[in-house]
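Reference record
================
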Amino acid sequence: MATLPDDYELTFYYPTQAAPSSTVTFRGPDFGNVERIDRQQVVQDTPANELIVFDRGPTTYFLDFDCSKVDRTDLDNLITFFDTIQGAKYTFEVRVPRYDDLDSSKTPNGGRLYAGCQWDSGPLEHAETDREGRYAIAFRLRSTGRTNVS
């Protein structure tokens, strides 16, 4: 597997990036990874036809990642990380590269740090894709916070 610069990798931190007790770096997602935002609002019409919006809680970010050409060692490291944090029981942070802000050498200028992450519903899907033992992996996370980082 070709080695990508650090800016292209996902980095998982438990419990936080500031003071991690467990860290794993994983191949960056293929282009097309999805971020969905749920504002958790209630919208209500009044009898006077006015629209009232109530916030029900924090904004939640849902992150879908698809990674291909992952070797067995990286897969095992990711599985071990999620075993350590016991799936969705404990929160963690993940740094994701920002592909929408590339410099002249096509390297991301920064990334996003998602805080309060938890494993979302569904399994960690991984399928062997070639005779060299590389895998394709799909997984979903949810987060309660997002900041831009350099």
Remarks:
- Residues 13 and 19 are 8 Å apart (CA to CA).
